[in-house]
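Hey L., structure's done. Input below.
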Amino acid sequence: MDSLPEIRTHSSYAELANASHDAVVAVYTGDTAQALNQAPCATWAEAVAPFCRIDNEFGKHVALVPASSVAGGRLILSPIASLDDDTDDVRRVFDAVKAGVARAIEAGAKAPAVYLAPLPESANAVPDADYSRWVEVALLAALDASYVTLVVREHRQLTDGAAAVVEQLQSIHLVVENLSDAQLSAAAKRASAIESGRRLAMDMGYGDPERMTPHNCAETIRAAASATPGVDYELIDDLDVIKKEYPLLYNSARASFAEKRTWPCVVKLEYRSPERAKVKEHLYLVGKGVTYDTGGISLKIGGSMRGMSRDKLGACGVAGFAIATGLMQDPTVDLSCILAFERNSIGPNSLLPDEIVYSRAGVRVLINDTDAEGRLVMTDPVSECRERILAARASGSSLPAAIYTVATLTGHVIRAYGWYGATVANGPARRGHYDQRLAASGLAYGDPFENSIMRREDHEFVRGRTDREDVYQSNSLASTLTDRGHQYPAAFIIKASGLDKHSLSSGANAIPFVHVDIAGSAEDGHEPGLGLCGITGSPVATFAGAFWS
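Output:
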């Protein structure tokens, strides 16, 4: 993995006098003149006064002001309109910092200092906001502004050679005067680990269908894991093994067998806490890694295939979180990750509607729509996780364990919530507030999630009605045209994986399960012209906040 810009934190603005920087980005809330009169450097107000006199809009948007009193002569003002209104949350901080740092980069800065004015007391009274991680969020925003995608880095290296710019910034200085050096250092450590994970997820996510085939994704993860302490990597690429262990993935991927470079594969990542006495839980994470989704024989039409190279972002996010956890060396969690990669191709060997396929758990699945492949590729890994949890319990382990699936699974979740992710949890997970834990963390890290509730209709919808099948994989309509289109797939995964035997009524055999649909949150929703949306790296930060100590 490429290294991040150096992060240096300062608990006093005066410390910048001895720090090598070439711009100051001031992030503050409220009236510009009032805010700058309270700033640590009175000359800021002098520098902006002429602009305030002639422009009534000055101070409402990002602005670059010549100021001889700051390094590089660049003072960038990046105001936040408010942090205490009904729908304000920490994303206001992220947006302001990223915009300010981006403006500094445009001006030629390579080592900006970001000054964060104290949060207003009123911000803590907003019921649907959490600013407890605002310093980490600010650092993540600055790092996001500096990030250059893998495909662009490779292009620049090809065309510019050694002179290629592969990172916008060399260093970032962060000044927060109401926090201690220890607090700032801890925030920088967490943000650096999270950002490294996000970048792995985004590097793979931005890769086109050929740059990031299933095996290229696997190789990218292998390289990252080999450089990360405590993370073990395993690749399963033998088709006979996949057919036996992951039959639903195997059958979904059949059309891709024509070209070896597009064969499916399974990546396993294991992380074990270095401090065994501090481990509180074992997380089993399953990621959907569909590197391109044509819909299979249920072909996507009308332009709906566009953007389907992003259908791997669930697996990318899980890999990113595993790498981030290894870098953080968090002592409280163990991780077992299974990432199922395939290209959902179309061809003479395609999986067909009307086929009945046996899952790993021996459940007969009636295929109705080959474009509902994500639930197929994840179900057998979920079943494997279930088996491993039961085996651990049988051997005497009392360590709490839960299963999470992460996927860009449905368009319905975007129709329901816009560009937000959603959780769908089973009874044991609901009882343990596992889904609410993710929602709370997402709020703190600027990646809000909605908690959807699984209902009896979801299980009834997929229940087999004849003696020829046990469960329906889907209906034959798009999820956007289906009632409860992002909830019922979780019920399918539960039934087809055998998790239905581990519900609340199973007592001590209950296994918490949370399905995380990131179809909305994995992208930013802003299409540049005819290009594809930006990628956010969700849910790496949310998982870090939910599961790290």
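The domain at 199-519 is CATH 3.40.630.10 (Aminopeptidase). The chain has a mean pLDDT of 97.

-- N.
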